[in-house]
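Continuing the batch. This is chain 6 of the set; chains 1 through 5 are on the previous pages. Same settings as before, nothing changed between runs. Recording input and output for traceability.
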Amino acid sequence: MTVSMPSSASVQRFAIPPGTRVLTTYPVALSPSLEAITELVPAPSGRKSDWQGRGSGPIVKRLKTLWRSWRLFKLAAGYSAVITTGDLEGLALGALFRLVGRRAPVHVMYDCLWYGGGRLRRAWMRFCLRGVDRCIVWASVEQERYAQAYGVDRKKFEFVPHHHTLKHYTWESGDDGYIFTGGHADRDFAPFFTAVRDLDLPCVLATNQARLLDGLSVPSHVRVVSVSPAEFRHLMARARIVVMPMRATLLHAGAQQSILNAMLMGKPVVLTDPEGGADYIETGKSGILAPYGDAEALRDSIRYLWDHPAEAKAMGSRAQEAASSLTVERCNSTMWKIALELVQAKRELARVRAADEGAAREGSSLRIGSL
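Output for chain 6:
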């Protein structure tokens, strides 16, 4: 089922609370009104210590990240909201905000790409997440998954459709008569190889991580290439069909960027993560959602699209229409709108509390005066 998004105009019309200042950790594309209230974390000044400047091991990298979290925490006091990614830097900041309590600014995290972990990891995540106001997820199914995995309120997670990333790339869509697949994060190429082995259709697999193919028998008609991001998008644009063989057994559902890029190019996409992909692909209309691990269903989906080019083309056109509005700017504006709504709600709550405390003090004074 395709999720409808608020129009860009409705996002931009949202009233920005007076005096609002937003601090963020990475530069993002925003509307002029949101850009005017947003500041990027400034680069640190002064002499760096040895561990900050030259270390590169995993422990040193974590120390650097935690140091950035502490620095961000100190800077955040002067802002209404802080927007970060969901990596260690953002999580550690959430832990620090939890210690501060209600005096902390609103904290929103995006790119929440988590995979569960053991008991200690989950306890750490639970502690950090309780200090975060909202976590933006790219698949609606992750709202319930993360809430259950980490033992926090489901309302803490909000689904915002991801975006395509073709704005700064040159590509020309066409049909050079092959099936395209590729990528690296959470891919499972074994079912894909099983599905296409007997089809004898030309395939191109683009990945920079050869380890994903370890122990697998690559069919002779599958050409494996290692390419740049621009070449990856070019190969995708010239394919007849795009297949995203995702692992659907993980806490995190991925590949939204690749899916939306292919859809914007007018490609029918076959995805092996029905739950994670249902927000973007309406199966049979703008693509096909094939059950994970079912090589026969995947083969039938590929065969159908190959044997019915008119239907595949129509499916690609519907996919392009569905993906066209999911721009980077729209995604970012929606996240900022969520942060601003939280700022407004927090101010309203503070006013109610102040009024209640004032009424309580006045009532106490009256009682004392009547003694």
